[in-house]
Specification:
Layout (H helix, E strand, L loop, with lengths): L6 H7 L29 H40 L2 H20 L4 H6 L9 H29 L6 H7 L2 H17 L3 H24 L5 H22 L9 H36 L1 H14 L1 H24 L1 H28 L1 H9 L5 H28 L3 H53 L9 H24 L3 H20 L2 H13 L6 H4 L1
């Protein structure tokens, strides 16, 4: 969208968040001052400005996610001891349904709000109405379809849990535009506080109900409690008047951007949860429980990093794309190697130390999940890279490309998972997931990015060192773990630490390590020779 040509038009369009632009100052009894000719925009300064805001938001999102995932990890260990494997299997079916409806509940309106160009306050009543109507209609569909969905997964007992858990979208619909407003303003600090408060409520409700014998319903009621608490705080923090309305032109703009985005996200959710349905149908709820646990462990890092990054990547890349193509390319060049360097050592260490990790955290009864986890870490890396590609495509308005990307991925994933489950049980299903992601999803993501002008060749050299570091970390950790034997804690601490040190020594440049080593001396007060005399 081009800038308005006149000052009245500029004031009508408002600022980036919809605030009216200030009137030009006029001296008393005189004429308006001649406006200064603005200097040509500097791409680097624009990147730095957006980077500062995004960095602040990312720090808050990462800190909040870290605290939440640590709490979620503790809660999962408690529930793994209070509930049975079959309870996890039933919950997995309900979770698959919920994660799909959560991303399509508002037909992409939330993403459209984040990147909206124009007067913000004139758009929000229509966006709020669309969110409420679409979520209510979708919930009605899933209420009716819940028995058939549970039957297709081979677990009829999941019907009630599906109906309860998917009710979360009704709460999310009320707060969707307000959540998008906080993201747009880079107020991830407030959003983080709201989400953390919701998690506290979830943990309290879930653990209490699990002790009382509520089985898989303890998960569902905990999620509902979390949505209510988080939603209440989001409404308070956003400070946005809650008005309903409908403007056909605004709705058309929202849907033209949002519908393809919702379709892409919906397909992404299907891809991440279709394994539950296939494993449950082919192998039953017992093996599905093991598969769910392994999938959850492999999702720790994507949920911690990707969800935090997504809170800032979409508004950041949208602002860079609005500026110019060069700024967007530079932003991508900085983001991809950073993300890759972070996830590689985690994936490698989870691969080599899967058995002691599962055994120490959940007990030996869950050891079957370890063999599954080793292949799902490949999927973990793919998920994080494709999620970043998804955000880049969305930021430039190429939402249809996200649909084709996930359609191609799904076309490979479903038969691969079915075949793997029949050939090698839950481990085979994990292999199918990994192959479809690495061989199909990543190439399709690169192709889609190239079509919108985002080149990947300049980034490749920066990925070589992290890749070599990952190989070294895997070799060192495997060798140390083999020598230590079956002491789970010792393997994780010593073998994992050794692998991490090997990775750092290879990936971090020597001059930077040396600079870190001498930094405390550099900050000392300079010596005064006269005083020594």
């Amino acid at each position: 969208m081009t800038e308005p040509a006149t000052e009245p038009a500029r004031r009508a369009a408002g600022g980036p968040d919809g605030e009216p632009a200030p009137e030009p100052a006029v001296e008393h009894g005189g004429v308006p001052p001649v406006p200064e000719v603005p200097a040509p925009p500097n791409p680097d300064s624009k990147i730095e400005e957006i980077g500062d805001k995004a960095g602040r938001g990312l720090r808050w999102s990462l800190a909040g996610n870290l605290v939440m995932k640590a709490g979620s990890f503790v809660m999962s260990m408690v529930l793994a001891r209070l509930l049975g494997v079959e309870d996890f299997g039933i919950f997995a079916v309900a979770l698959a349904a919920t994660q799909f409806v959560m991303v399509v509940k508002d037909l992409g309106v939330q993403a459209a709000v984040i990147q909206w160009r124009g007067r913000f306050e004139e758009m929000t009543p229509t966006a709020t109405t669309l969110s409420l109507v679409s979520a209510a209609g979708l919930y009605a569909i899933f209420w009716v379809a819940a028995p058939g969905f549970a039957r297709a997964a081979g677990i009829d007992e999941a019907t009630g849990v599906v109906r309860l858990l998917t009710a979360v979208i009704l709460v999310e619909a009320v707060t969707a535009v307000r959540s998008a407003t906080l993201v747009r303003r880079f107020r991830q600090d407030q959003l983080t506080v709201a989400i953390m408060a919701g998690f506290v409520a979830q943990a309290a409700v879930s653990i209490t109900l699990a002790i009382a014998g509520a089985g898989p319903y303890s998960f569902a009621w905990g999620q509902v409690a979390s949505a209510l608490v988080t939603g209440a705080l989001v409404m308070i923090f956003a400070r946005l008047p809650y008005r309903l309305g409908f403007d056909r032109e605004v709705a058309g703009r929202l849907w033209r951007f949002g519908l393809p985005s919702a379709a892409g996200l919906g397909l992404e959710a299907v891809l991440m949860n279709v394994g539950y349905v296939i494993v449950g149908n082919v192998l039953g709820k017992g093996p599905l429980g093991y598969f769910l646990l392994a999938f959850n462990v492999s999702s720790w890092v994507p949920l911690l990093i990707t969800s935090a990054v997504r809170y800032v990547s979409l508004p950041s890349f949208s602002r860079l794309a609005e500026h110019d193509a060069e700024a967007l390319q530079e932003g991508v060049r900085r983001a991809v190697p950073l993300l890759f360097s972070f996830v590689v050592p985690i994936a490698v260490l989870m691969w080599t130390l899967a058995h002691p990790l599962i055994g120490l955290l959940y007990g030996v009864k869950w050891d079957q999940s370890a063999g599954v986890l080793r292949f799902l870490v490949v999927l973990m890396v793919v998920r994080m890279l494709t999620a970043l590609a998804f955000d880049i495509l969305t930021s430039v308005g190429a939402t249809k490309s996200t649909v084709w990307l996930n359609l191609g991925w799904g076309a490979a994933l479903v038969p691969a998972t079915f075949a793997g489950a029949h050939l090698d049980g839950i481990r085979g299903a994990a292999v199918g997931h990994a192959l479809a992601g690495a061989a199909v999803a990543l190439p399709l993501a690169l192709l889609a990015l190239s079509r919108v002008g985002v080149g990947f060749r300049p980034i490749v050299p920066e990925l070589v060192r992290p890749s070599l570091g990952g190989l070294a970390a895997g070799a060192v950790s495997w060798g140390v773990a083999t020598a230590l034997g079956d002491d789970f804690l010792l393997e994780l601490v010593v073998a994992g630490g050794s692998g991490l040190v090997a990775y750092i020594l290879i990936v971090v440049p020597r001059d930077r390590l040396r600079r870190y080593g001498v930094r405390p001396r550099a900050r000392r007060k300079p010596r005064n020779d006269k005083e020594d005399r």
